[in-house]
Each structure stands twice: as structure tokens, then as C-alpha cells.
From TrEMBL:
Lineage: Bacteria, Pseudomonadati, Pseudomonadota, Alphaproteobacteria, Hyphomicrobiales
Residue span(s) of domain Four-carbon acid sugar kinase N-terminal: 14-238
UniProt source species: Hoeflea prorocentri
Molecular functions per Gene Ontology: ATP binding; kinase activity
TM ranges: none
Keywords in alphabetical order: ATP-binding, Carbohydrate metabolism, Kinase, Nucleotide-binding, Transferase
UniProt similarity note: Belongs to the four-carbon acid sugar kinase family.
Name recorded for this polypeptide: Four-carbon acid sugar kinase family protein
Residue ranges of domain Four-carbon acid sugar kinase nucleotide binding in the record: 261-418
Domain of life: Bacteria
């Protein structure tokens, strides 16, 4: 379907993201290219789209049990198909965050079955951020991902950098590498390589990519496929091949009145360092998860009482982020899943409490935390406004919501990003 053939109210490209922060990065990239791309967090909010040619439906299924993830994925894919989306793209983290149980493989299986495709590609590389794939192995900078801190991720550790093997443990379908030597021969050679492999029974194709030229070949090879999967770089390139109608990049409108607060749920080293820098200028309160496990209501109430005293003076930060040793201790005590759920529960409660205290501008650190906070403050549909020199963009709901948010992946951003965002939100204030 071309732009000219498209009927009002229908989509060209529907993107299903496994978390909110990843969805924001994709939408921001497309908006920067002149492609209007709203974000919703549930299929029932798709009426927010208007005449958009692309949209992101950002879920919270990266860490969900596979059965729940597949159910949500199927419902979302059906809703997008009902809107006449002729290209469905599944977006996951560039570092292929998953476990041997899923959820990349199970969701890919669901996507392939629902679209009736005979092939599905996986292009996770993000060269501009140092994430590359060569001979099927994923690198972060110059080292294998399994030799980086990602090996010790508390919920999605990556001890194996061989993505063909990693994906193979999540699906019964045959996974084949599309090596860079094939990509270097060009688009037609790559298409012939894949066609021949499909004839031999292969279904899933893991693409090498070490630079943007490789990403471009991958996007051109797969542009007519009904479904595709990948990370940020592919998601910036592929929809642009589907959608030719471009708009001017929107200007950030006046922000809703209210106070500004940071909620940090990520335990990534980057987030911990960002909080340290923020604390040089603004007050920070940590809610210790061990205390919340003992008396949840008191831990949250104490944090809200503190915030109520501090907010009249300016922005504040509330955090459940902990260092690696503290994370290990709370996981050993509660279990990995239970510790994660407790952290999200605290962040949800703090978000609701801050909203009641007059906070309308939220800066949220952590992918799972972002989804939990958006759900708590009932922000389920938003437009993204790209920011200069800061990844992603400001997310604004409709006028009725009165909310402005910045959702940040835990490991993303400079050490001053929280301070920079507070300044941006202050400059965009409409408090008169």
C-alpha cells in the first residue's frame, strides 16, 4: 500500500515495542524524519492515532511470562491489522535482552504465524551506539557482549554472545545467519541467499551488521516483507522505506503547569551516576526495597511526606535504584521476580503520590519503571517531541491528561541528563 492508496484511519506501519523506552526512541527517530508516529501503551488506545501513517504500541512484555507476552502480542498485532497496517515490526532492545524462555523467540513465532510469512528477519545492531553483530556474535564496542556488564544483568543476563544460538534456544524454527560477506555483495545477492535458504527450510534470519550501510541493505532486502524484527537502527530505517509522506518536525508546545520530579527504578550504573550528579543540585530520596518489603505503606508514606516538603522548593528525585551488591541481597531474600515486582510497585505508588502532590512533569529512569509509571498516572497515548542532543524525546499526552514525561532506558544518557531534562522542562513551563 502506498501513501496515495491509503484510506483514512488506516496505518502503513505498526510497531510493537517490548518496553516503553524503546518505543519512545523509535517514535522520536521517525518524527525527526518527518513521519508522525504517536505512541500508545495498549491496543484499545489506538483511536488516538488520527491519520498517522505509523504508530508504536509499547508494551511491558520483555520480562513477562512467555504465555502472557504472546497473548498481549497477539492482541496488539490483531488490533494493528484491523487498522490495515501492512507492515508489522517487532522492536526489542539492541542488546537482545531476553532469556532462554523468551520473549523474543515466542513473540516472533506468534508474529510469523499471524502474518502467514515464510520468513522473518532479526536485525538487532545499533552501530551508532556501539552495538554490532558480526558472524552472528553481538559486540558492545570492541568486546563481546558476554564480556561486558550485560553478562551480570539482574533480570536478563547475556552470558552467550552467539545470537543464532540464543534465538535458537527460544524457538523451534531453524535460525540461519545472514553473514556480512553476503550483505557486502548487495541487495540482490542477499535476497537470493535468503530465498535459497527458505527453500531449504530456514525460517528465521539473523543479520550481521557492523555499520549503517549494512543496516541499509537489510532494510531494503526486507522492505516488502509483511513482518520484521529488530533494534533501534533498523526501526529508524525500515519504516522510512514504507512511508514517503513527510511532515515538518513538530515544535515542543508549552508544557502543562505543575512540578517536576524524577523517579528512578533502574539499577544500571549509568542511572546511579546520573542520580549522583542530580544530587549535587537537587534533593534525592532513596526508598530502600528491604524497608518496603517489611512495611510497604510506611516506606511509601515516608517518601511522599518528604516529597511534599521538598517540592515547593523545586524538582526532586525519588529512587529505588541500588548498587549491585544490594540488588543481589534483595534478590536472594525475595527472589529475582519478586524483587523486580516490588521495585515496580513502589515506583507506581510514588508516581501516584507525586501526581497527587501536583507533579505533572515526570522524568523516569528504567524501561520497566517507565511502563509502570505511565500506567500508574494513566498516560496511555502520547506524542513524542524530539530533543536536541538528548536521545528520545518529551512525551506529551492530550490536553486532558495534563502530563509531560521523559522516559529513559536505565543505561542511556550522559551523567548530566537528569539535570539537562529539568532545565528543558523548566524552559518549556507554562505555569502562569
Amino acid at each position: 500500500m502506498t501513501d496515495g492508496e491509503r484510506q483514512s484511519g488506516s496505518l502503513i506501519t505498526g510497531i510493537i515495542a517490548d518496553d516503553l523506552t524503546g518505543g519512545v526512541l523509535v517514535a522520536s527517530s521517525l518524527v525527526e524524519q518527518g513521519i508522525l508516529c504517536p505512541i500508545v501503551t495498549r491496543p484499545s488506545a489506538l483511536d488516538f492515532l488520527g491519520d498517522s501513517l505509523a504508530c508504536v504500541v509499547a508494551g511491558r512484555f520483555r520480562l513477562a511470562p512467555p504465555e502472557e507476552a504472546v497473548q498481549w502480542f497477539d492482541e496488539t498485532q490483531r488490533a494493528l491489522t484491523e487498522r490495515a497496517a501492512c507492515h508489522i515490526i517487532y522492536k526489542y532492545c539492541a542488546t537482545f535482552d531476553s532469556t532462554d524462555c523468551g520473549n523474543i523467540g515466542p513473540c516472533a513465532d506468534a508474529l510469523m504465524q499471524s502474518t502467514g510469512a515464510d520468513r522473518l528477519g532479526f536485525c538487532t545492531a545499533f552501530p551508532s551506539r556501539g552495538v554490532t553483530v558480526y558472524q552472528g556474535h553481538i559486540f558492545l564496542g570492541s568486546e563481546l557482549l558476554c564480556n561486558s556488564d550485560k553478562r551480570f544483568d539482574p533480570v536478563t543476563p547475556m552470558p552467550d554472545s552467539d545470537l543464532v544460538a540464543v534465538l535458537g534456544r527460544q524457538t523451534r524454527r531453524e535460525v540461519m545467519l545472514v553473514p556480512r560477506s553476503v550483505l557486502a555483495d548487495g541487495v540482490e545477492a542477499t535476497r537470493c541467499f535468503i530465498d535459497a535458504a527458505v527453500d531449504r527450510g530456514a525460517a528465521y534470519f539473523l543479520f550481521d551488521a557492523i555499520d549503517d550501510a549494512d543496516i541499509a541493505v537489510c532494510a531494503e532486502v526486507t522492505e516488502t516483507w509483511p513482518a520484521m524484527t529488530g533494534g533501534d537502527s533498523l526501526l529508524a530505517a525500515l519504516p522510512a522505506r514504507h512511508i514517503k509522506d513527510r511532515k515538518s518536525v513538530p515544535i515542543i508546545p508549552p508544557l502543562p503547569p505543575g512540578a517536576t520530579a524524577v523517579i528512578a527504578g533502574s539499577c544500571a550504573g549509568a542511572t546511579l551516576r546520573q542520580l549522583e550528579r542530580f544530587a549535587d543540585s537537587y534533593p534525592v530520596r532513596q526508598v530502600v526495597l528491604a524497608d518496603a518489603a517489611e512495611d510497604f505503606d510506611s516506606a511509601v508514606a515516608d517518601a511522599m511526606a518528604w516529597a511534599g516538603q521538598q517540592l515547593p522548593k523545586g524538582p526532586v528525585a525519588l529512587s529505588v535504584a541500588q548498587g549491585p551488591e544490594d540488588v543481589k541481597r534483595i534478590q536472594a531474600r525475595l527472589g529475582v521476580t519478586e524483587a523486580k515486582m516490588l521495585g515496580e510497585r513502589v515506583c507506581r505508588a510514588m508516581a501516584c503520590g507525586l501526581q497527587a502532590l501536583g507533579v505533572s512533569r515526570f522524568i523516569v529512569a528504567g524501561g520497566e519503571t517507565s511502563g509502570a509509571v505511565a500506567d500508574a498516572i494513566r498516560l496511555d497515548a502520547m506524542h513524542v517531541y524530539p530533543l536536541r542532543d538528548i536521545p528520545g524525546g518529551l512525551c506529551l499526552g492530550d490536553a486532558e491528561s495534563g502530563l509531560c514525561c521523559y522516559f529513559k532506558a536505565g543505561k542511556m544518557g550522559s551523567e548530566t541528563i537528569l539535570l539537562d531534562l529539568v532545565e528543558i522542562m523548566g524552559q518549556g513551563a507554562d505555569d502562569d
